[in-house]
Amino acid sequence: MYLAHKIQLRPTKAQIGYFRKACGCKRFAYNWGLAQWKAALDRRAAGEDVGRLAARWFRDELVALKKTEFPWLADVSKHIVGMAFEDLQSAFNKFFKRQGRFPRFKKKGKAKTAFSVGRETPSTFALDGKRLRLPVIGWLNLTEAVRFQGEIK
């Protein structure tokens, strides 16, 4: 059984900037992966053998290009880009199972602005009263203390 509650964050201006950059990087990675996937599907429809498609191949391709073409992606945690490709894979899985529609590009200002900090070990998170430590971001102020004990996810 999972117990959860929401606590409002009180980030500094620098942390707000990081959050915005992280959301933009996630949206960019998702859209880039979707464009690559669509291009591969078009090549397959034209008769070319592209093999079995998976988001991890496009993720690895983006990681290889990151140092030369997209160096600004290194400003955020590597897990943010990875989670974008997990979301893309999930969207295609739902589409192919006929549980959802074909994935769409995420438009700035219209898409949900959110990101995950990844699946690090629980020891990378720390609580200290009304403060929470997140990887890369550092200590983040909370409006209230956590009301129960347990693992932070």
Rounded to an integer, what's the Rg over CA atoms? 18 Å
Number of contiguous helices = 3
Number of domains: 1
Q: What is the overall silhouette?
A: elongated
Q: Could you give the distance between the termini? A: 13 Å
| Order of H and E elements | EHHHEEE
Largest sheet, spatial ordering of strands? 1-4-3-2
Low-confidence stretches: none
Quaternary organisation: single chain
Main sheet, how many strands, which sense, barrel? 4 strands, antiparallel
Beta-strand residue fraction: 5-15%
Number of beta strands: 4
Q: Which whole number gives the mean pLDDT?
A: 84
- Secondary-structure-based class equals alpha+beta
Helical content (DSSP H or I, runs of 4+): 40-55%
Explain the overall architecture.
The protein is α+β, with helices and mostly antiparallel strands. It has one domain (9-142). It is 42% helix and 9% strand. It has helices at residues 13-45, 55-66, 78-96, and strands spanning 9-10, 126-128, 131-134, 138-142. The protein has a four-stranded antiparallel β-sheet with strand order 1-4-3-2, with no helix packed on it. Helix 1 (13-45) crosses helix 2 (55-66), helix 1 (13-45) crosses helix 3 and helix 2 packs antiparallel against helix 3. The mean pLDDT is 84.
